[in-house]
């Protein structure tokens, strides 16, 4: 059963409008979470804001946002002042432009969400917008207030629904040239390329979500289950860290040994 939507509003393209529902496409609800306790009393520890100078607690009504313009010098802003500069895009996804689906690089993608028609009446309009984007291989760009901030969003048709991606702001993405410019232009050895290509072929598999399972999560759940039963967890044998020497490795020898190991592993 699909979880209840966390956002409801309207999808709009020119004069075409339909009610839609949205849910985050990812979740961390299954992640093991811990509370911080007082080891002596067993009581939970709570956090609160305190004045950095006096050390006294600050009442919620006395809290205010401040933008630092110098050391111990702040411009104070009220919540209603901050909200006033935002656009009124809280309940309508108004698609104002389209771009080719392959023109936005993955690094701009932030959070994925599932967008669906909210009722049967709006399903036809929703389907027309979705299928037209798929047919033209275009994605829609709009703006929307989510998570208390206005964000650029991308709408991508996917099967019967639409994936809505929040996009990162321009100042959040660093220029790759600042990091890759220093990499040399040396061309790889043709023989080494052939062996690496073969090694990639040996290790190629079809994607499955099992490839990204979390063994630490499983170990934590086992630890908690044992504690419930009053048993102590045996210390897990950690993965051995392979020590590497500082000597220069002969790439061809390393590749040949890797391929030989791959062959033995498959034979077993």
Automatic annotation (TrEMBL):
Domain Ku: residue ranges: 55-185
Keyword set, alphabetical order: DNA damage, DNA recombination, DNA repair, DNA-binding
CDD domains listed in its UniProt record: KU_like
Top-level taxon of origin: Bacteria
Family annotation (SMART domains): Ku78
Keyword DNA repair: yes
Entry annotated with the keyword Flavoprotein: no
PANTHER family assigned: NON-HOMOLOGOUS END JOINING PROTEIN KU
Oligomeric form and interacting partners: Homodimer. Interacts with LigD.
Function: With LigD forms a non-homologous end joining (NHEJ) DNA repair enzyme, which repairs dsDNA breaks with reduced fidelity. Binds linear dsDNA with 5'- and 3'- overhangs but not closed circular dsDNA nor ssDNA. Recruits and stimulates the ligase activity of LigD.
Membership in a protein family: Belongs to the prokaryotic Ku family.
Name of this protein: Non-homologous end joining protein Ku
The species this protein was found in: Paracoccus broussonetiae
Gene: ku
